[in-house]
Amino acid sequence: MSKQWGHGYCKGQDDANKKSKTLVGLWFHSLKGGEVEWQGRIDRAVHDGKYVVQLFSWISGDPTEKVVVCADDVEGWILYDDSSEMRTAWEKTL
After folding, report:
1. What pTM does this model have?
2. What is the C-alpha to C-alpha distance for residues 41 and 38, in angstroms, rounded to an integer?
3. Which of 55, 56, 59, 80 is most buried (most C-beta within 10 Å)?
4. Could you tell me which residues come within 8 angstroms of residue 47 by beta carbon, excluding any fewer than 6 positions away?
5. Measured between alpha carbons, how far is residue 2 from residues 35, 44, 47, 78, 94 in Å?
């Protein structure tokens, strides 16, 4: 499910990095072409600047699959401290 994402309901990576020395454990909405693509949690860092992320279903909210992404890709994502903050941001865009 994708929807156009505006400013004002999100936290950027700079904000998140100030609160945390690592991205591991942060929740996210990934963006592609200005629209939300995935929702999930950054599970762990792996070698060579990559992260394993857990994706969650748009329908049920259940975990779906884990994927490996480059740190460069994460730079454009909207990051949240917890799942509640992520859900609140999403609900405000409905």
Report:
1. 0.75
2. 10
3. 80
4. none
5. 6, 25, 30, 14, 11
Residues in Cβ contact with 10 at an 8 Å cutoff, skipping those fewer than 6 apart: 29, 78, 89
Residue 80: how many other CB atoms lie within 10 Å:
23
Q: What are the structural domain ranges in the chain?
A: 13-91
Structure tokens at 80: 């949240």
For residues 84 and 10, the model is more confident at 84
Q: How crowded is the C-beta side of 40, counted as CA atoms within 13 Å?
A: 25
**pLDDT over 70 at 60, yes or no:** yes
| Rounded-to-integer distance, Cα 68 and Cα 5, Å | 24
* pLDDT (tens digit per residue) in 10-31: 445 445 444 446 899 999 999 9
Write out the CATH class of domain 13-91.
mainly beta
